[in-house]
Amino acid sequence: MSSVSRFADLGLADPLLRALSDSGYESPTPIQTQAIPRILEGRDLLAAAQTGTGKTAGFTVPILQLLSTRAAARPGSGRPRCLVLTPTRELAAQVHESVETYGKHLSLRATSVFGGVNINPQFRALRGQIDIVVATPGRLLDHVGQKTVDLSCIEILVLDEADRMLDMGFINDIRRILKLLPATRQSLLFSATFSDDIRRLADGMLNDPVRVEVAARNTASELVQQHVHLVETHQKRDLLSHLIKENRWQQVLVFTRTKHGANKLAEKLSKDGIPAAAIHGNKTQAARTKALHQFKSGRIPVLVATDIAARGLDIDQLPQVVNFELPHVPEDYVHRIGRTGRAGTSGAALSLVDGEELRLLSGIERLIRRPIERIQTEGFAAPSRPANDSPRNPRPSGARPGNGARKGPPRGGPSKGPRPGGRRQGQGRSGASRGNRV
Q: What is the CA radius of gyration of the chain?
């Protein structure tokens, strides 16, 4: 399958090929090359795939084909044939959007259900015949309890980002849902990592699965240029403003640890003449949807986010990610920088690191098994550091990270590291719950 260069070679029907072409997709990614034929064969699948590898199309496209070529066994109100479970409402909305995009030349119907939005439009969408439901576990069980959805006719089940669902404490909800599904069904499990818990879950829900893997565990994308800027804490905000203006970044996703920090940083950047918005769990769903839309459309160049956006946000060709603060968990760094360098495109990730974060940086470098090159900017001093942590090859003053960074491996480090690798947050997107023809 590695030699496949066209979607047509994967056995896809013309309506799906036209939709893929309309979306500008010319050739399948490795996960699509491996997964699509197996799913079309009706096999269960255990897939290791990061976000940004094209995995969503890897399962939505063949599912659309399978459902479109066979009739529903017991069609009826609120009785879907395919269920896709996701950990967050953002991801549910984006998978739903992908289903609409790839299925626009078909007569199937899909809807998404998640918390954080009015449930009444979801009730209305489920009153008719629905082929595909994309859902977060909690809201789906709400519908089950109110008897607005019947899962007894599910033909295909997908668990997307299963590792994050377990991290967020959804295992009991998932087990309750599995008990409501037919024993005979096709099941697909996608996960960035394969922990013991994931393997146990897979053993209980998959039948003789085909295993596909497109990236090693906790590897950092070779397409992402990673740099560290050592800087005093009180200079971080001014440095970020300087870098955005100096490098003329038009689209940059900035990560902070806290919701309050995200708000304060967005306000600071706006005062500096750089339009910015914050997105985190305390924002209303309407505010989050608006901010994400403005960022994607280019109306605002900076989106400041907490780790709620580290996985699930699908932003095509995002060129720049900045870690304003390093995460406490090294794996979260990998998820953050995975927002760029997606699906074959290059990207850059810059981390602003103060003296207190040096130990966190060491943990990240151990995880990705490579040093991250240090850079400096004139006028912004490096913080004092413990004697056992010296800067690795800081670039001369005035060097420009990201778009203007020197390409190539960090001096003294390997040219390529192993390629990258959740917590409970809210689930959604306003309006995404409507049943739409796809």
A: 22
